[in-house]
Amino acid sequence: MKYSLDSEIRYIPKVGEYFSKLFFQKDIITFKDALFFFPKRYEDRSTITNINDNFKKTLNNNQHISTFLAKCIGQDSFVFNRREIKKFIFKDEDTIIEVPIYNPQFRFIKQGKYYFLTGKINYKFNKLSLNILDYEIFENEDMEMLNMGRIVPIYSSTSGLPQTKIRYTIRFILDSISDITYDISENIINKYRLIDKSTSIKLMHFPDNYENLQRARASLVFEEFYHFQKRMYKKKLEEKIGKEKNRYKNTDLLKFLQDKLSFKLTDSQIKVLDEIKNDLFSKYTMNRMVQGDVGCGKTIIAILSSIIATESKKQVVIMAPTDMLARQHYFEFSKYLKPLGIKICLFNGSISITEKKKLKENIERGNINLIIGTHALLYDINFFNLTYVIIDEEHKFGVDQKETLKKKGDNVDYLVMSATPIPRSLSLSVFANLDISIINELPKGRLPVKTKVVNSGYRDHSYKFLLSQVLKGNQGYVVFPAIEDSSVKELKAVKTEFNKLKKTFFKDINIEIVHGKTELEKREKIMNDFNSGKIKILFTTTVIEVGIDNPNATVMIVESAEMFGLAQLHQLRGRIGRGKKQGYIYYITHGNVTDNAVKRLGMLEKTTDGFRISEADLEIRGPGQFFGVRQSGMPEFKLGNIVKDYQLLQYARIEVEKR
Q: Count of domains in the chain?
């Protein structure tokens, strides 16, 4: 029978309808599905020695996996948990070992036959026993072994589908299909010395050594990244839509405000602002991301660039994920733009029905130039002439939500801002369709925040230091991972600790509490009182992670710091030291913290470079969880890992952009 990549595996001898249903549970229907169902790991069973030598190795390393050849010389049974368990007796040169069979897939062993066995050897009650992982019958000296005597693939399986059956099926397909080629030019194949695709697939399933396995994997990963980058580059070109001629008239008002600023933009900010201006005045729509470290001054760039649109009687919308951040933006934009006669409004879910109706009418008539809001902007609102969309913390929004807002205008210019630096590998994958602008320097005069990671034994010292700073006229934050107590002892809760500390350390200090469940009006009053200096210490959760700017706040204490991600802890650190004063932060851990957590948190003491921290956080937590929630735009790769294979991702991007 002639097979192709589209042939169904149920037609393979010894697979049939029964096993094909089990393969289907792993999304394997065709030959192609099986070939690209790569092993999750490998076991080196290439060294086959006798039982006694393997036992000696086990004494030195209790994780040692033994592989040996022995003859089944008998069988017996015993009772375990009221079940009769069969066991086989094996013997090699001079050693006997018992093999209890708990898994029915090993019940087909026959007495008198020789078998290769692999598993962990145990010694109990003066007997050797094997916790069997796999076996293969010995037929002759020239037999090709799939399960022993080599580097053996281990696959993700399902109940009733043995590893041996998966290996047999894939070997059958590899023997039946040979001509599988790359859809890449010969020049690229030769330039990067890619192993041909058929050989690479064979080596992925049945490698002859680890060096060739790595070369085969790299070849297939490059191809996977290359086609991904082609799709993203095509999308990027498709999103460069032509827009009406002379959409924006001039930059006179922008220049006027820039000259009036009480501070000087950094060179990096000026460069990024120029990149945005070039996009806005080009004949194609802008699709750009602005990223930079905490406190680098992204917001002022958004403010300045928005003037270009509003001066030309166009509308600008800024969407933020939280009400607190939207309000902070409203105050910041208003401070700079209202004196210029630009009409600004805050549109969120908390405004009254009457006020919302009035705002909608004014927005739809074009009476309001700049609209700042939350998810409420996505629903039941139209714009008069929206041309510029800015999304802050864009990772907090789904792909569909972002597209919904963009479609409310006609071929809008689109700018997204990231709260923290984006690792290079994510810039080349998740955001490969965007042009990237980086603000890589902080405003002059900022002092690096002094950082300490301490255990709970230093807790009192930390609070005494905070108190001393408050008595000097400064302010501070105390951040907790939870609002209320839970069953996790180490998880400090803001409500409980606030009530304790206001009676002890801070009984004579004006302190307040704010969190995600605080009523909006109360929260706004508390934040205003904190910013004005009336409240000295704010007990809070990560609700203050972004959008809070109080230059007088110099100290932060983060309780149960081990519960947070690195990028989030760095983001919190960005809330202090925002003025000319020295900032201090204590990350306090509780309970038994793992060595890995100590090492991870230690990086915060070593550097305040958000780019280094974001790379480390991505490596620790993986791409899918980097932002704290599963990123809806995260690409799924069969083999590639955008962190470990970053160099290949970069090479693929370079080759795509050349063509």
A: 3
